[in-house]
Description:
Chain A is mostly helical. Chain A is 78% helix and 0% strand.
Amino acid sequence: MLRSKMLLWKIAQRLGAIAALILLGGLMAATLVRMAPGFDADERELDPSLNAESVRALRQSRAGEHNILSFYASYLRGALHGDLGTSHALGQPVQSLLRERWPVTARVAGIGLLLAWLLGSTLAFTACLWRRPLYEILGTTVSGAFLCIPAAVLALLSVILNAPGYLAIALIVFPKIYRYSRNLLAKAYASPHITAARARGLGEVRILAWHVIPVAGPQMIALAGITVSIALGASIPVEALCGLPGIGQLAWQAALSRDLPLLVNLTVLVTLVTLLANSGADLMIHMLRPGEESA
Amino acid sequence: MNRARKFACVVVLAVCAVSLAANWLAPAGYTKQFREAPSAPPSRQHLLGTDEVGRDRFARVLYGTRISLLLAPAAALVSTALAALVGGLAGYLGGIWLRLARGFTDLFLSLPWLFLLITVRALMPLNVSPLVSVLITFLILGLLGWAASARVLSTSADALRNSDFILQARASGLHGPRLFLVHVLPNLKPVLYAQFWISIPVFILSEANLGILGLGVAEPLPSWGSLLRELEGMISFREEPWRLAPLLLLIVVMTSFQLLLSNEEVTA
């Protein structure tokens, strides 16, 4: 009973922190948009058919945006009513753009993440179980090579090789999973109770399942939360260069056309997903081991 | 320093030296067009061939390397200085300041790096001169890349704040900025150096990503990002493999940095 109450309190705390961070992040983003060069410029004012009064009316319509706080308040009011504004470049409501594009990113990043975890954790676990120097060198070299290649180059290479976009995401994320998991597992294997277990004749698989995973598990769950953020970041070059119509491609198009309202909404959305993933990982760790959280 | 690290150090220094000697090694420069030979294969005159508009690829690789390898450390210097200011000071002051700084760095770290980069890059004007685009790109990297280092530094400064020698210095009447500058900051030097070196490859990769996406250094100025953008037109590796030269050079330099930093990452 006490544990479930604590869990509920933890969830409430997390949600409160996420709401506060999103509000603060939104204010920061709105401030940056407001301060950006060219914010006050409106191409419609250049139309020679408009008279002085029409130009004045246009300027008057933007008067409310001059104060950062009122600009942010009106943005928040709209967001609470489901109105995230209109994309300047695409001329469509941001909300409908997000609804159209999100499933593509969720699918590509989701499959990529799954493959990355499969590859990274398999390599890390087998390296720890086998403990063959050659295998370790191979794993470190391969992951190191992929860490040296920019995400956008991997996306370009996947286009040249006709490989699916999710494979590029998997190859961007897997080296981080492999290296971190490998270090965690090696650290767990170095503890004295593992040596004692080995001395008593416990099998390697049993040691892994009973003594290593419970030690390294919580931090690997925290890593799972972080990899969501990495995969979402990787979706920008992958979707942009592989021609996948997702959130990443939309962000890239918005950046190239300086579509600031769309870009800010996308950043807030991606931040929200990242925070939810990290909080989910933290809550899972809390459920498994009360009192322990990812740093 | 083990053999691998020594070798990596030599490689990075050699690449830096060759790129600094670009004026002598490639006197034609990175803008000169050989209009009679666009997309030419490697020859004695053009060691890596020419690009689609007839510019010598070897010269562009050398000048691009110089820009990326000189400005990434400059950006790392900015980000480390910011991290020392935010993280170091917050850790030294402790209490509410430390909690505030950690909340702020957490907010920064929760934003996916590339999303944050392209958002802030888009806030700046895109149609600017090549030189301004270089400054904007690397300044953005420096101004946004401080959060992870600040978190590490705040933890180190927090540990220092409670150490015996700081307590003794306080008891001797040393307080405020003097205590921070004379005793705390010098003891943070190893962490600051580590964070500085760790930031360089991160910024090189980030610039490359921005360049390929068309949001980095503007033409005709070359950088690794804009050079790698050339891969976009490739159909297969067999056809014109010399176009992969900037990628190979980037991999060599990044691998060298990885070898050099293998210890720093553990200590940081």
